[in-house]
Amino acid sequence: MRELIGSCPAKSFSAVCLYLQWIEEPTLLVKRFEYANVFHTFTDWYSGYVASRVTGLPSRPHVVFVDGHCRTQLEETWKALFSSIRYAKNFSGPVCFRHAIMSPLGYETAWFKGLTEDIACEGASAPELWQHPDDKKTARLSEFGEMIRGAFGIPVHRQRIEKQASGLNILFVRHEDYLPHPRHGGKVESRLSNEQEVFDALKCWVSNHKECKINLVNRLFAHMSMKEQVRAIQDASVIIGAHGAGLMHIVSALPKTVVLEIISSQYRRPHFALIAQWKGLEYHAISLAGLYASPSVVIDNLSRILRTLGC
Predict the structure, then answer these.
(1) Which of 16, 87, 260, 272 counts the highest number of beta carbons within 10 A?
(2) 10 Å Cβ neighbour count for 96?
(3) Which has the closest alpha carbon to 278: 144, 170, 172, 161?
């Protein structure tokens, strides 16, 4: 990025671009790294959102990918979040931008900085911070989640989850082992070796829970549209899942949602604990000695959470 800026001459580009194609609308120039990975793509979406806010854009910008990657199923969300998507590699000739914004690189976002640096910040709503400014609180992630919900036509003004006659929804986020793209050099590894056993135990326990009605919702996000994924998150009172990209959706969770993460010994990373903190969500974790989770331990943790919700 520094080399690209440094290569730009100080003189006006007007004469150079006189007979070339102009793009008048504000445009984000995005370089993707892990282009088919949900976690890393979320950081790209967040960078685009923050860049739009910091530069004071009145509407969602257009996006031009300046990398050489191909299309993925995640393009559905790129198109929903931004005004348009184009690939620089498909331009037939030189293009001049009236207002170009270089989006922060994925590994330079607060999400990644928080893994190695102490960012003492708590989540809050924008109205709260307007009334009571506090430089130790942020509404950025909450607003980003509202942007995602709004992009798919899901109401953004619902502020809390009420216990309804239909019961509380407990969302069990399933993980599917996969290679994110053909050039991936790693190997497929499980995040939770007995995921089905844990789910079956929870299902049995919920069916015998007498204090209140509970709906255990089983979702494998890899086989759902993004809109369906976001709606499932919004309808959940408690979200349970093994450490994995599916938990990135907690950025769209409503206030008062509780997150219970199951962390194997191979994936002790603070990603979702930090995101929950910066969202202002209640967060709990079960740290495993290996890849196996005791169903009874998961049930005990969930039972304690439900008691705090009056169930």
Answers:
(1) 272
(2) 15
(3) 144
